[in-house]
Amino acid sequence: MRREITFTFVVIAIEIVIFGAFYYQKAYQPTPPRPNLAVVDSFTAEDLTFFRDTTKVPADWHWLGQAYMASGYYAEAKATFAQAANLMPDSAFVAFDNGFCLTRVGQLEEANAEFQRAIDLGHPKPADAMYFIGRNHLRNEDPVRAEAAFRRAVKIPLAKFELAKILYRRGDLDEAETLLTEVVRAEKGTVQTFVLRSQIQLKRGDVAGAEKQSIETDSNWARIKSPFGEQRLRLMENNSKFGFYLKAKEAVAKVAQHENRVARTKVQAVLDQEFDLSVHDSFIRLCIFVGRIKEALELIEERIERFGPNSSIMLTLGDVRKMRGDDELALEAWKQGIDINSDKSARDCCKRVADFYGSRPGDKDKSLVYQAIGAELYAKEGILLEDFKLARQQASFAVKFNPTSAEAFYLLGRSELGLGMTDAASKAFNRCLELEPTHGRSLMCLKSLGEKPKILN
Amino acid sequence: MNSGRERNGPLAVVLVVLMLVIPGGFYFINDDIQVRGKPIDVDRIQTSFAPSQIQFKRESLLPDPEFGQLFANVKLLPSADGNWMDVVAADCRTGLVKRLIHETDGSWRETVINQDRLLPGPGGVNPVDFDGDGDIDFLVSCIGGIQPTNDLVGRVCLLRNNDGVFETIDILKNVRRVTDAQHGDFDNDGDLDLVVAVFGGPLQGQILYLENDGELNFTDYELMKISGAIHVPVGDFDADGDLDFAALVSQEEEEVIAFENPGDGFVNAKRHWIFSSSNFDLGTAGMVATDLDQDGDQDFLIAIGDNLELLNNAAQPWHGVKWLENKGNWNFEPHQIASVGGIYGVAPADFDGDGDIDVAAVSIFNDWSQEDAASVVWLENDGNQNFKTWQIASEPIQLSSVACGDVNNDGTPDIVTGSFHFRRPYSKYGSVDAFLNPAKGK
Question: Given an 8 Å threshold on Cβ–Cβ distance, is A308 in contact with B312?
């Protein structure tokens, strides 16, 4: 019996030692770093505090690192990811995130070691990791190692493009151009490819060729798909999963769903914390929708006070003033809106002004002029979007009703150039130059047509 | 024997129960164990520096703001009576160019120069007698607004002084965002021409040369189609007697390209790549020309600290100030003279009066979660172009522009800063602030 009792004592003692050690290890394990939450809004501070206080298992550390990084606490995120990596040494995802975070704080060698570890652990996007390794070598001013990394990541068009750029800078123009052609095959019409091809042509001394490529950048805005863009999107998604941006998203959604009473409460709670443009714009829309015009007007004025005017807010200001019956003040706002941007809001301002004059006897001519200005803006957008047919239609209208506008003739010529109507284009550019002899873009386009090359090298 | 066994019976039961309870209990409390460990250590790049031994005194030139201000550029010019210096500031938020007049009693009075119309996001301003009539006009470059856009919102305007009444004249429009316009008589015909940095949208920008026919009619020449041109400082960089200029190109190039004037302007200018980094995330943000080493030629100071690619910016170890030393024949040697996060503006001056050129620098994107992170520093030159960084202020934060000059006419150069505050944290606001350098002996 004594022997059994002794044995039991020993077992209990061993249990106490083992579980005591477990307890100690758990209770006194390192805790996540504490960022200075005084510099963020209280929603974010509250959620980050909750995440930090409930971080226990390795996956919690991983998430906390992501939350810190999304909130801009990069140093704290780095320490948190490092702990996550200690706890989950076999996780390729943790290694990748750790690499990305280390990149953000400029610890490039350490970042590359983590990206390499992510690859070795079987991360599903090894080429992305290799692309980031290449970029970090570039950050370290080491194009040789960057080249080696990009060559291993050529599956990604942007890695191929970076490689082409390194070769261009080194003077290997032939290989750079070959690679660029392959990039274009994968990602047609991307702006970077036109820029780099233009630079290559220029280095070759082919000024006309360079100029032709340059002109393409005006109407090709798409960018080559980027692994960085994907990570940025992920960060933004993480950002809207908690704190301020979650509340902002919920508030905007309630406005869109016309749950006006709830929306109002939520919007005001968010704006009490921070002046967020999208939420504030939603609040303006909400006030207009429920007929609180005076409040809407005050909010618009507050927005202009804080961020200055743009065409969009001037359009809304004009509309709200019109609702209040202040027609002349509305007209003033719309006219200001025309002059600020050249986007859809600016065009809508034009339309409002044209309609305003159109409704007044004796002001039909003014209405036509504003319609023509609107058509000019539309033509600009048509050119930027490469919809040259639409651009020509609008520019033709603009020159008809505003025949002293040099810009309108330029736009007509540019759209005709886009449609391959070179004779007509030349005529329009020349008409533009008759009205404004120093119109640089017309001179440049004429030069690209091989006529009167006044614009330089 | 039996009695002994009976005596030990309850003890045995207790022990067996204990043996089972310990692991079971641990299993049950495992999730509720309160963690009492210490937070893990965080190491970060240096955000603050030794406090300046020169005690600069902050003076706000405008009333304390309630929210972030967007002063993109500040410059100094002599006051009307010539005793003080006034400040001209480009207010990107309101579309106004403001002159802050330094009154004789030392106070400041705000006036608006462009009273005839608002400007679309004035981002740069230069005081200059542009039309040669003996009074100061203002040359303004406009970025169109603070939101990035591909729209043709950029403009170069001249605020022409007609006996104290300013008329706004558009010199250049229908271009993308313009970040800088600098003047000079580049073609030696007696009037002032312009070089212009059209920063552009994401990847569409230009460097332009605008030749003045003497009647303020300009012919624009596109010298280069390139995105991200920020500043185009002018100077005689090859010491051949005519004015050249250099373009700081950020975005995805991170280069400085100099344009050599053959004597008749830039139509046939030769280009020199005088600085180039393979770090396409370098974040160059501003450049000024100055003879930093006082060897008789023009060098450049570059502010490095732009970091806008993510919602939250991060100070980088390569941020700070670079000096491009002019070695002659269009060779420039780069030197990192300070490492401070998020530097956006630099200006040279001899702050300690020891005869060499020091540098003031302001930060827009330091790590503002650190209460003592530096927003204004000066770099003390030991006379051999070795620099020590001294912290002047950690408030206001998010500064984009700096100018140096003897604001209060006490014989020492002061520092004036412009605040461009549009990101977190929404505190420690500034607008236009002076950091007054105490006069020697005080």
Answer: no
